[in-house]
Amino acid sequence: MPFNEDIVKLAKANTYFREVLATGQHTQVVVMSIPPGGDIGEEVHDDVDQVLVFVVGEGQAILDGKASAVSVGRLVHVPAGMRHNFVNTGEINLRLYTIYAPPEHKPGTIHKTKAEADAAHEAEQ
User: Fold this and answer.
1) How far is Cα 22 from Cα 5, in angstroms, rounded to an integer?
2) Alpha carbon distance, N-terminus to C-terminus of the chain
3) What is the pLDDT of residues 53-77, one digit of tens each?
4) 8 Å CB contact between 16 and 111
5) Are 103 and 28 contacting, i.e. CB atoms less than 8 angstroms apart?
6) What is the pLDDT of residues 32-54, one digit of tens each?
7) 0.85 exceeded by the pTM?
8) What is the 3-state secondary structure (H, E, C) of the chain?
9) CA 114, CA 103: separation in Å to the nearest integer?
10) Which pick of 40, 53, 118, 122 has the fewest CB atoms within 10 Å?
11) Residue 1: pLDDT band by 50, 70, 90 thresholds?
12) 17 contacts 116 by C-beta, under 8 angstroms
């Protein structure tokens, strides 16, 4: 199904930890909101590239153990197989949109909190 939306507006308005907005055969569009002091959680996607674009807040990207700052307008490319995490170091929710290629989550997935996301991941394992 085609997707033609103002992604920055949607990402800024998002209050869920993760919401899948669009899923195609080869890519997926997701918005995320990470609370102050929170993180996405260290992970590796063996067969999935990920591109993240930050629209609100500030944080830290940790890519293969090396930390660097992220803030509004920053784009981070995480190649498949790279260990990564993103941490909110600011005082407001860190909001972003991300593209997975190929898709990583089931179409329509919503995780209101990181705890929900972690529980869903455990159930899938």
Assistant:
1) 10
2) 29
3) 999 999 999 999 999 999 999 999 9
4) yes
5) yes
6) 999 999 999 999 999 999 999 99
7) yes
8) CCCCCCHHHHHHHCCCCEEEEEECCCCEEEEEEECCCCECCCECCCCCEEEEEEEECEEEEEECCEEEEEECCCEEEECCCCCEEEEECCCCCEEEEEEEECCCCCCCCEECCHHHHHHHHHHHC
9) 19
10) 122
11) confident
12) yes
Cα–Cα distance, 63 to 42 (Å, whole number): 9
The residues pairing with 85 across neighbouring beta strands, listed in sequence order, are: 62
Closest CA to 100 of 43, 44, 39, 23: 23
Q: Which domains does the chain possess?
A: 7-124 (2.60.120.10)
pLDDT at 97 over 80: yes
The token duo for 89 is 């170091």
